[in-house]
Amino acid sequence: MPSRAPPVLALPQASLPPPLARPGRPSYIWTQSDRTGTPRMAMEAQDIEDLIRARFPEAKITITDLAGDGNHWAAEVIDESFRGLNRVQAQRMVYASLKGKMDGAHGELHALALTTKVPD
């Protein structure tokens, strides 16, 4: 049985979103598409940190791109507000701060390995 090449997604020029407004950023960073074939834009480390920082202003936050693809991230969040909480409770607080960016196939953030800690 002959093997088939994966389909190639071709977007008409008119369907592209406007370029990102921040200087020094690439115009477009596309990640895998969802099941409808609609491409998703990857998030950048600063975008992830900004969302977390809005909920945890005093936290020490470290964001790492695990695969170098802007699609698989690790975050370490150290904050006093986690004291007395179990790991699941603390991680739920951080995931809630991402405001739906990880929601299903339409989320901008594909994967986030999360570590939460209290300060020493």
What's the helix and strand layout?
Blueprint lengths: L29 E4 L5 E3 L3 H11 L4 E6 L6 E7 L8 H11 L13 E7 L3
Parallel strand pairs: 4-5
Antiparallel strand pairs: 1-2, 3-4
Summarize this, please?
This protein has 120 residues and is α+β, with helices and mostly antiparallel strands.
Order of helices and strands: EEHEEHE
Given as residue ranges, the uncertain stretches (5+ residues, pLDDT < 50) are: 13-35
What characteristic shape results from the CA principal axes?
elongated
- Portion in strands: 15-25%
Tally of DSSP helical segments: 2
Tally of DSSP β-strands: 5
CATH architecture of the domain at 43-120: 2-Layer Sandwich
Mean pLDDT: 77
Largest sheet: 3 strands, mixed
What's the gyration radius in Å?
17 Å
Helix/strand/pairing class, anyone? Answer: alpha+beta
- Fill in the CATH topology of the domain at 43-120: GMP Synthetase, Chain A, domain 3
- Across the major sheet, the strand order is 3-4-5
Protein name: Stress-induced morphogen
Pfam families: BolA
Region (Disordered): 1-39
Family: Belongs to the BolA/IbaG family.
